[in-house]
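User: Can you predict the 3D structure for this chain?
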Amino acid sequence: IALPDLTEQLEMAGRVQRNLLPARLPNNEKIHFSALFRPAEWVSGDIYDARRLDETHIGFYIADAVGHSMPAALLTIFIKQALVMRQTYDHSWQIFPPKQVIGNLNLQMIEQELQGCLFSTACYFLLNTETLQASWARAGHPYPVLIRDKKPTLLESRGGLLGVFEQTQFEEKTVQLCPGDTLLLYSDGAEPLIGMGKDSDFNFHFSFLDLCSLSADELIAALDHQADTYRPAPGQKDDITALALQVLYTAPN
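Assistant: Here is the predicted structure, written as structure tokens:
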């Protein structure tokens, strides 16, 4: 029996990885998710998920394995399994706060003793769909962006890379979302489409500011179109992933 060649194997690996992504995002009458997933090659070092945890809570995240191609893609499979949002018991369950979710993932990566210096960044949110209160923790990941009244703001919090130090502390913060808000998470491959600079010196591109009046679906579609025309420097092509959450003004028809 002839074995598939390398290209066919990579295509199959890419399909397997896409099967790990959520088939359906947890939209309801109050909120709407939209996602962008563009591997730089056949497979991606990025992964995202958005999952309903109970009647009033949704957990969602983006993680970005440091590196490219197959090793990074394999690490995303580990992250998918090791990032635990809730624990189910006999007749009850416990939803873990973001700081604990990120901290536990960090310890899991360290305990696994992954070969090849495999590290990752991540940003995890826990949303209460009744109160629209969102808590988050991040680990070396680009700051999420809150778009309110057509103006973007970085949501800053402290936290180092995953899989490096057991003692790393991850700061948890909370933001009160309002109808009309859009929350955008993205991997560093999408950062050239968003803005330039670090921390307080970060400046949003004018092209991104023009997108801040759009719905989540329109925003993701526009970023996808920009990614089509973006030409990175040689050897700098990166995976591009984004997850947008829009708080709706009213229930859709």
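Residues 98-112 form the longest helix (15 residues). The chain has a mean pLDDT of 91.
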